[in-house]
């Protein structure tokens, strides 16, 4: 009888402990239900739901029962919004009055109303305990069995109620379960403003749109030592063929690495309207390392479309501490400095982090992967493009006006000039001898090319778009 009695008392304590705080037990398949915290501990990301709070600390429960303890002062304002929304829902659901989180400290949740409920539960459990002991000693077998059965049913009900998972409540202003705030269109627009009117911007409730003609506000092509004989031509990144930046980033459950994905199409759009492609070309080679890029980190694709493969860090000279690009998952890309002007902190495998801004962002660097190591945010992949040459949708597309050419071995591009607004002259060198490509176009879509090789032979070609 003593063993049974102590067992019942132990169960009552466990039941009260389970009831005393919200939360639950999560497995790997529950990752989508968990909150992604902007705070990190020992450089480890925290993914879990609010478990309980007491005095000035918060307990967070992750998968497989992992628990993090955070101080109230260590969490960001966005996470405080999430916590207060979660606590408000717990108060409403359970009829209790847990205090919300202030700007500095969390007050103890053991207020009178909450304590009263726990005390009532304890009295009921103790009452059933003594009732079962009395019934057993007086040989009231039926009464003892009734007390024991009733108490067991209560414990089972309390166990399932206390272990019920709470789906994280969306903090304002982001309508997702991630806690990431919706991007400010005025902030994004201010990053692109220095490069207008060469580009134009607009937005709706879902995307921020960037339109342009495919030419940057700097020179191009000089410095390329591995040339495919493509040259920059205007591109119609306008109308419905504009670049689209999601306004509501959502963390990917498993970030997709750019080493094995996205070798087709852009992964980001620079603030001057030029797309940024994977650091690796479609053959899986580092474009910068093999000499395919110019002094600004760009070159032309098979459609004669100019784009970057390396980080356009030179844009910081104009952009200052503002982003130099935005990835197609919605997260900003900064240069060599943090948004507050301090030196760049260590980066994660995605090539980004959360810093004082309180929002995840990438950084451009001079070493691989240069811009994006893996897509931190969720993206939609074109189902017709298998990895590694898969691409993100939506994005703008270039339109070729001539067939792609083949690499010109030994050619080094030494000069690139713009005699008129609709013409360019490119000079290359092979074994100290110069060659030239001079080309122009008109408003009717007629393109004229003049090729002068290193032997002085001239050929021409005309195309219509």
Shape: elongated
How many structural domains can be distinguished in the coordinates? Answer: 3
Overall mean pLDDT stands at 82
Say what oligomer this is: single chain
Poorly predicted segments: 1-24, 103-114, 159-177
Strand content: 25-35%
> What's the number of helices?
6
Portion of residues within helices: 10-25%
Order of helices and strands: HEEEEHHHHEEEEEEEEHEEEEEEEEEEEE
Count of extended strands: 24
Please outline the major beta sheet: 6 strands, mixed
Q: Give the C-alpha Rg.
A: 31 Å
Which structural class is indicated by helix and strand composition? alpha+beta
| C-alpha termini separation | 93 Å
Biggest sheet, spatial arrangement of strands: 10-9-13-14-16-15
Please, could you describe this protein's structure?
The chain is of the alpha+beta class. Helices cover 21% and strands 27% of the residues. The protein folds into three domains: 1-181, no CATH class; 185-406, no CATH class; 408-465, no CATH class. The protein contains six helices and 24 strands. Strands 10-9-13-14-16-15 form a six-stranded mixed sheet, with no helix packed on it. The protein has a five-stranded antiparallel sheet with strand order 20-21-22-23-24, with no helix packed on it. It has a four-stranded antiparallel sheet with strand order 1-2-3-4. β15 (352-354) and β16 (360-363) form a beta hairpin. α1 (2-19) runs parallel beside α4 and α3 packs antiparallel against α4 (141-162).
């Amino acid at each position: 009888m003593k063993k049974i009695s102590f067992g019942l008392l132990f169960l009552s304590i466990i039941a009260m402990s389970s009831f005393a705080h919200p939360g639950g037990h999560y497995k790997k398949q529950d990752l989508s239900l968990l909150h992604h915290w902007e705070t990190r501990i020992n450089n480890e990301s925290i993914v879990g739901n609010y478990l309980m709070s007491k005095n000035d600390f918060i307990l967070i429960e992750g998968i497989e029962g992992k628990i993090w303890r955070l101080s109230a002062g260590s969490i960001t304002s966005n996470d405080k919004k999430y916590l207060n929304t979660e606590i408000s829902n717990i108060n409403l659901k359970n009829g209790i009055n847990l205090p919300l989180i202030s700007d500095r400290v969390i007050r103890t949740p053991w207020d009178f109303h909450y304590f009263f409920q726990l005390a009532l539960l304890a009295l009921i459990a103790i009452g059933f305990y003594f009732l079962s002991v009395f019934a057993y000693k007086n040989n009231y077998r039926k009464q003892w069995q009734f007390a024991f059965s009733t108490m067991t049913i209560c414990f089972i009900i309390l166990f399932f109620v206390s272990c019920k998972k709470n789906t994280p409540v969306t903090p304002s202003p982001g309508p997702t379960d991630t806690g990431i705030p919706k991007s400010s269109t005025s902030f994004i627009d201010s990053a692109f403003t220095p490069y207008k009117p060469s580009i134009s911007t607009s937005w709706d409730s879902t995307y921020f749109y960037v339109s342009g003609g495919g030419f940057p506000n700097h020179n191009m092509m000089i410095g390329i030592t591995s040339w495919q004989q493509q040259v920059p031509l205007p591109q119609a990144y306008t109308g419905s063929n504009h670049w689209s930046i999601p306004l509501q980033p959502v963390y990917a459950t498993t970030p997709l690495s750019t080493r094995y994905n996205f070798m087709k199409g852009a992964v980001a759009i620079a603030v001057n309207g030029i797309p940024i492609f994977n650091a690796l070309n479609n053959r899986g080679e580092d474009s910068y390392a093999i000499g395919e890029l110019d002094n600004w980190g760009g070159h032309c694709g098979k459609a004669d479309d100019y784009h970057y493969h390396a980080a356009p860090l030179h844009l910081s000279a104009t952009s200052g501490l503002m982003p130099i690009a935005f990835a197609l998952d919605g997260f900003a890309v900064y240069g060599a400095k943090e948004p507050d002007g301090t030196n760049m902190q260590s980066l994660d495998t995605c090539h980004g982090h959360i810093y004082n801004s309180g929002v995840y962002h990438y950084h451009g660097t001079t070493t691989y992967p240069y811009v994006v190591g893996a897509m931190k945010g969720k993206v939609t992949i074109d189902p017709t493009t298998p990895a590694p040459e898969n691409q993100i949708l939506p994005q703008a597309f270039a339109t070729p006006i001539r067939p792609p050419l083949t690499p010109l071995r030994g050619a080094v591009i030494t000069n690139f000039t713009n005699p008129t607004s609709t013409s360019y002259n490119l000079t290359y060198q092979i074994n100290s001898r110069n060659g030239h490509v001079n080309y122009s176009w008109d408003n009717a879509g007629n393109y004229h090319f003049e090729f002068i090789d290193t032997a002085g032979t001239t050929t021409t070609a005309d195309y219509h778009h």
